[in-house]
Amino acid sequence: MDADRRPWPIAALAAIGAGVIATLPMSAVMLAADAVGRMGTQPPRRIVDEAAEHTPGPGPSDEARDAAATVLHLGFGGLVAVAVLPFLALARRVAVARDTRGVLAGAAFGLAVYVLNYAGLAPALGVLPPPTRDRPGRQVTMAVAHLVYGLIVGALVNPLARMGERNG
Fold this sequence. Notes:
The chain is mainly alpha-helical. The chain has one domain. It contains six helices and no strands. Helix 1 (8-35) packs across helix 3 (62-80) and helix 4 packs antiparallel against helix 5. The radius of gyration is 17 Å and the shape is globular.
């Protein structure tokens, strides 16, 4: 049985676990792009820096900001992954092999997360400019990183849900 057909707590926990795991290789893509000069300040760090600017008192250290950015990215990656469940439900209606449904749903999900965040949320919050005005290379990197994230979430959520149901 697919994760989206399992009890909500099991499906949600499986998606959260898949999201946290998938955020690690996604971050590796972002860090590799940063190493060759394509990123600038990482988006999670930019969010933390923006929040710190609006906090009274002395700002947190760079180490504290880096730690907060890491926790933010992993937490956000886990929570957002719950939204893969409707993508999995839609994938069941597509005439493709059962084994590829999660990966296809994950790819669509990852790209949707990229578009919503980088063409919508980040510019609206003033964290990053819209993709058309961002630094060259960052948007391609972010699209690839979110595709990696989505593919891994899509591949892991059903096996994790099966494990959760067996252990629950």
